[in-house]
Amino acid sequence: MFVRAVSMEEGRRLQRISRSSKDPIRLRRAIVVLMSAQGQTVKDITSLMQVGEDYVRDVIHAFNERGFDALDPKWSGGRRPVISERVREHIRLIARTSPADWGVTGFATWSLSKLAEHLIDRHVVPRISRETLRRILREGKVCWQTTTTWKASTDPDFIAKMHRILALYDAPPADGRVICVDEFGPLNLMPRKGKAWRPAGRPRRLRATYNRYGGVMHMLAALDLVTGKISYRIRTRKRWREFLGLLKTLRQRWPEQKLYVVLDNFSPHKHAEVRTWAADHDVELVFLPTYGSWLNWIESEFAALRYFALNGTDHRTHAEQNAAIAAYIRWRNAHAEPKTRFAPESPIRRWTDDPANAA
């Protein structure tokens, strides 16, 4: 048997499909029809294409009846899943809980094999492989993650303090300037782990043994939300005297404006001398709630400083390390923009009376 007579235009179309189609099923069917149109028998096509004779006859019959539509595969959706979506969701729920919650003692977390055994023992499914289980969890966006810690704030005024700081971020007072202040450090002289582009299998090596004969230093920094720039100084200590020196520098920089200084509850920040000077020089100290350091906008800047300027380094002197920090701060300030929209989508903005927070 042969395919019906094919016009010249149909022949060109079949040839284009046989050369460029990315669908293997459509490509194979087009070749079968084209070979039949060229006068090759079913037996010849079967031998060349390594397919069954029934397949070749079915393709030819379908093309004779429906034309080029017969070349496109008609997917029926495949076999219905053995495990229903309801059961799959139940499996994901069990995976997100502790084995102890289901009476499985001696285990703090599920392995795939242990979870599969539990599902079979509880008659959730008659049988399930680890690969199927892994696929079900992946489809439900349940993945293997490291456990993190959190602290609940013990500050009875947590909500009021948080709202005060968010208000300063969202609507800075017209009569002043909002500045976030904190200490960064200690700055040790030691090799620091980091990441860098390297040939595969050849990571950068840093010394594993070192001495801390150079002592430590501390960085006192201030983030101006109006410009987004950072001011800092590096000192051997971080007492109230060093902190007060930083405040005096900020006061001299903006002599005509009231300063709203956001800072944590570090004891030097609350020293009597600091409080007295701040009250006398139009500086309002806005303290963060206890265990609420993540509300200080400068914390994210410290994370970037650590990642880009210090991680992966092995400075041997403080002068060398301080120069690296200074170079990064200069680059960062040259690209700084005003700081707006603090955590706009964060759940913290929906808190009302629950002082618990993830630190």
Automatic annotation (TrEMBL):
Biased composition (Basic and acidic residues): 340-353
Record-linked InterPro entries: Homeodomain-like_sf, RNaseH-like_sf, RNaseH_sf, Tc1-like_DDE_dom, Transpos_IS630-like
Entry-linked Gene3D superfamilies: Ribonuclease H-like superfamily/Ribonuclease H
Protein origin, superkingdom: Bacteria
Residues covered by the Tc1-like transposase DDE domain: 177-312
GO MF annotation, one: nucleic acid binding
Pfam families named among the record's database cross-references: DDE_3 (PF13358), HTH_32 (PF13565)
UniProt-annotated stretches for the region Disordered: 340-359
Name the UniProt record assigns to this protein: IS630 family transposase
